[in-house]
Amino acid sequence: MNGSTSTPHYGPDEDAMTIFLERGFLASDLLTGLGYGVQLVLYGACARHLWTQRHTKRHSLFLLAYTSVVLIVETIFVAVQARDIQLATLFVITFLSDALVLWRCWVIWQSPWQGRWVVYFAVSIPFLMPITSFAMGTLWALESSQPDWTIYSALPWAFGISYFTISLSTNVILTLLIIGRLLQYRASIMSSLLASYAKHYLSLATILIESAALYSILAVCFLVLYAVNNGID
To answer: Are residues 133 and 213 in the same domain?
Structure first.
């Protein structure tokens, strides 16, 4: 009698690509959980700060409501493991992010020394882009949720490429407008005051560049993978 025992190998009766995708889903769930934890901590810190500033800064309650809505949508995305719901929440989050950048651009471009028409001219085209993005995103979410289709089906894929490309372009254009305005303020102050009074404008521009670069790099990677129908995206 052979004293050695061997356990038969167990493996799912699936092809290599399906197993690879399942591993990707597991890894993505882990990364999603980690990201949500970071977002939750940041939300707590931001909400506490905004609440203490509610009587002195008029935009505090608006920003508190905005961040709360974003957290609720993110919670739904993480908690509800349903394709249709996750596609809808992804669309909502992307649109809310684009709208916030547009609002930020509007606020920074307003100036008491220049007419309001300057602001209208600066944000006119970027204002139309989120509207187009909203329409394409709605079509992408609706078509992708059809019973026999996925986000990689021909029609949803076409809508998705257009949607995420417009969203990425909107963020890049608005960020460049914001940075350009901040540098304009900095140059104006340096022409009449000491350079130390203008350095915080450069710091703000640096922060915006870093945050926009991170988003743009991730968005480009996603678009490339999505365009070639790679499940890693």
So the answer is: yes
User: Against a cut of 0.85, is the pTM above it?
Assistant: no
User: How many CB atoms neighbour CB 34 within 10 A?
Assistant: 10
Residues 6+ apart with CB under 8 A from 145: 83, 84, 87, 88
pLDDT in tens, 164-176: 899 888 888 888 8
How many structural domains compose the chain? 2
CA–CA separation, 219 and 152 (whole Å): 17
Query: For the chain, how far is it from start to end, CA to CA, in angstroms?
Result: 52
Helix axes 60-79, 16-52, angle to 10 degrees: 160
Per-residue CA distances from 230 to 19, 209, 223 (Å) = 14, 29, 10
Q: Is residue 1 part of a domain?
A: no
